[in-house]
Specification:
The protein has 568 residues and is mainly beta. It has helices at 82-89, 237-240, 260-265, 377-381, 400-405, 534-537, 540-543, 548-564; strands at 17-24, 33-39, 53-59, 71-78, 95-97, 100-102, 114-118, 121-125, 132-134, 141-144, 171-173, 178-184, 191-196, 202-206, 215-221, 225-231, 253-259, 275-279, 283-288, 296-302, 341-347, 352-359, 368-372, 385-390, 423-428, 434-440, 446-454, 474-482, 485-492, 502-505, 517-520. The protein contains eight helices and 31 strands. The protein has a nine-stranded antiparallel beta sheet with strand order 27-28-29-30-1-4-3-2-31, with no helix packed on it. The chain has a four-stranded antiparallel beta sheet with strand order 7-8-9-10, with no helix packed on it. It has a four-stranded antiparallel beta sheet with strand order 11-12-13-14, with no helix packed on it. The chain is globular, with a radius of gyration of 22 Å. The termini are far apart. The chain binds fe (ii) ion. Residues 114, 168-169, 217, 284-285, 516 line the site of fe (ii) ion.
């Protein structure tokens, strides 16, 4: 069965819906809000991940935000950050490239991939740009995090929009009450670690001598350490100049360990000590056990032989030699090998890792996608279940170009002879990641964006916690998309194999491609805080390098934002 065309169709406008229960029983011990991020495909350009961001919010109790008493409000907001506003006012000067969407102003900040709930605040992120803060209730843009001059700006000559490459997955520190993230320069490969304490400023420390040859997607942490790792999206400079792509992802990538105490005693701007541990195979998402009293244990979701940089282009043939439907252009290169999850213990003294457990299942588990875990403090310290979504073996998402590039490192005998279905898997931390449950969707479905929601959230003190934290005492909220439309499936997190306990949908409602999701126990309007203003970043000397009409548009956007946000 083909991939659902609707998820990549460029003529779909994001819109609100009121979802109703169409199957099962909606539990009474669930609440809070489920968020998902989407690169709105009306401007996907050469790669779906470079489209401007949209955020969706689902109320997990019925009858909110104008929905009927038996309906669940599903609301959306466009991430109207400065680059989105500039593109709307001057669309003719923006053009998609292999590194994003460029313009005389600079590059767009996509903010289309993931969210970081941080107490009552909500940051939205993408790999190409700084984190963006939005109001969790109105879903309106509030600010970008950190002045461009504080980040490692890969394109300081751009007059208005910098190129800040920071990972889509920063992490909130529950004890030091800050956000840890990082940045890197795609040309020089230099890398730094960044701390955000919530105000206008960020703090940044260079990792002198560390290199980020590809890109960086995830930041993880233990109580004492911050972990950064390179992931497999690699820029081919020759391809940037129009030549056919020649490079593949590196199979082994450096993981950098930085001690939090070292960061606290090092003045920002000064190099901070770090250790380097090689990890293979390549990996987009990894999660450390917060409790490091008995060693640093990390779960890696390896994305073996997938290549995000090889997006479907006009005229591409798929792995079976069929012409790929043009509607799928921009889809990223899906996996040519079955992915494994591994559990490793890191040794910062010897800079090595010890493999504790590894699991793969070529029959069911292809194309690791996104995952769900208990983000409560106790859940991080003592994880029980880690839930991973796999999209299945999808021939239409693998081009002949990608097959040729990876021919010498894949085992074609392991490629399934038929398309396989998405599968949700629960791995048990308590039993060395033994799979506790698998649930298969249909092959014509695209299942995605799982998030863990604790049972009876808030009933036991911490609003993120259930009675028995760790990832099993609660629910998984999952998006399922097909040509029949969009629906939300709700699973008992401890019994995923039994299938959804409830399904929400609105007849005919469709949603574009979505990526990561998250959950907040409550939402309230954002407090008035001292946030970065776009107008503060505008520099008249830089603006004079632009044609006059474009400089005026930038000034207009600054005035518009200052007025909307109450600064004037
Ligand atoms: Fe991600």
């Amino acid at each position: 069965m083909p991939l659902p065309r609707s998820i990549l169709s460029t003529d779909m406008e994001p819109c609100d819906a009121d979802l109703k229960l169409v199957r099962g029983t909606w539990p009474t011990d669930i609440g809070g809000y489920y968020f998902i991020s989407s690169p709105a495909p009306e401007y996907k350009g050469r790669h779906i991940f470079f489209a401007d961001g949209t955020i969706y919010r689902l109320s997990l109790k019925p009858g909110e935000f104008g929905a009927a008493p038996d309906a669940f409000a599903f609301r959306h907001g466009i991430i109207a950050n400065p680059s989105h506003r500039l593109r709307k006012k001057a669309p003719q000067v923006f053009r998609p490239t292999l590194l994003g969407v460029a313009s005389p102003f600079g590059n767009t900040n996509t903010a289309n991939t993931a969210q970081l709930p941080w107490n009552d605040r909500l940051l939205v992120t993408g790999d190409v740009g700084r984190p963006v803060e939005i109001d969790p209730v109105s879903l309106r843009f509030l600010a970008e995090v950190g002045h461009r001059t504080q980040w490692l700006d890969s394109a300081p000559a751009f007059p208005v929009l910098p190129v800040v490459t920071s990972p889509a997955h920063p992490v909130a520190d529950p004890e030091r009450h800050c956000v840890w993230t990082a940045d890197y320069n795609m040309m020089t490969h230099k890398v730094g670690i960044v701390r955000y304490d919530g105000g206008k400023e960020i703090k940044r420390w260079p990792l002198k001598g560390a290199v980020m040859r590809q890109t960086m997607h995830t930041v993880s942490q233990t109580r004492e350490w911050v972990l950064l790792m390179e992931n497999g999206m690699r820029v081919d400079m020759a391809e940037m100049s129009g030549a056919p792509r020649k490079v593949t992802t590196f199979k082994e990538a450096p993981l950098y360990l930085v001690r939090k105490d070292d960061l606290e005693r090092t003045p920002p701007g000064e190099p901070v000590p770090f250790q380097t541990i090689p990890i293979a195979p390549e990996c987009m998402h990894f999660y450390a056990n917060y409790d490091d009293s008995d060693g640093i244990k990390v779960l890696f979701e390896h994305s073996t032989d997938s290549d995000i940089a090889v997006a479907v282009a006009p005229g591409d043939l798929d792995i079976w030699g069929r012409a790929i439907d043009p509607v799928l252009e921009g889809m990223y290169g899906l996996a040519l090998s079955p992915p494994s999850v591994t559990l490793r213990e890191l040794d910062q003294e010897t800079c090595t890792s010890k493999l504790i457990a590894s699991y793969e299942n070529p029959e069911y588990l292809w194309n690791v996608q996104t995952s769900a875990m208990d983000w409560s403090r106790k859940g991080l310290e003592k994880p029980t279940l880690h839930h991973v979504m796999y999209n299945g073996f999808r021939p239409e998402g693998i081009t002949q170009r990608q097959l040729a590039l990876y021919a010498d490192r894949i085992d074609t005998s392991r490629l399934p002879r038929e398309e396989t279905a998405p599968c949700l898997a629960s791995f048990d931390w308590r039993r060395s990641l033994a799979p506790r449950a698998l649930y298969r969707f249909r092959t014509d479905e695209w299942a995605t964006s799982p998030t863990f929601v604790p049972r009876n959230p808030g009933a036991f003190g911490d609003s993120y916690e259930s009675a028995d934290p760790g990832g099993h005492d609660g629910y998984l909220v999952v998006v399922v998309q097909s040509e029949e439309g969009f629906r939300i499936e709700l699973f008992d997190a401890d019994k995923v194999s039994q299938g959804p306990v409830a399904v929400l949908a609105q007849h005919g409602h469709r949603v574009p491609f979505v990526i990561h999701s998250s959950w907040m126990p409550r939402i309230k309007h954002a407090d008035q805080l001292d946030r970065l203003r776009f107008s503060e970043e505008l520099d008249e000397a830089r603006l004079r390098t632009l044609p006059g009409e474009l400089a005026d548009i930038a000034r207009d956007v600054a005035r518009e934002l200052d007025a909307e946000l109450g600064y004037t």
